[in-house]
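During the no-cost extension, the postdoctoral fellow (Dr. R.K.) reprocessed legacy sequence entries with the updated structure-token encoder. One reprocessed record is reproduced below for audit purposes.
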Amino acid sequence: MWAMKAIDLVKQDKFAEFLGIEIEEYAPGYAKVSLKTDERFLNGIGRIQGGATYTLADYAFAIAVNAMADEMDGVACAVSMST
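Re-encoded structure tokens follow.
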């Protein structure tokens, strides 16, 4: 069994930290995250790059599912197999 809660493991995500993703609120099965963007996040046509949007969604998923995993016996950490 992990010594740390699954949600705490997810909060240590170095890529989310690097991008500046903030966790606004969460509960089992729910997460609200935010990301302040600037010109570094823009693609060639001046829109937010799809990878940034996907990363934000992926991190929200990780927070929501692992907040739920912490309430389940025997589940240490949950990840998606495909998205």
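Helices lie at 6-10, 14-19, 50-69. The radius of gyration is 14 Å. The remaining legacy entries will be reprocessed before the final report is submitted.
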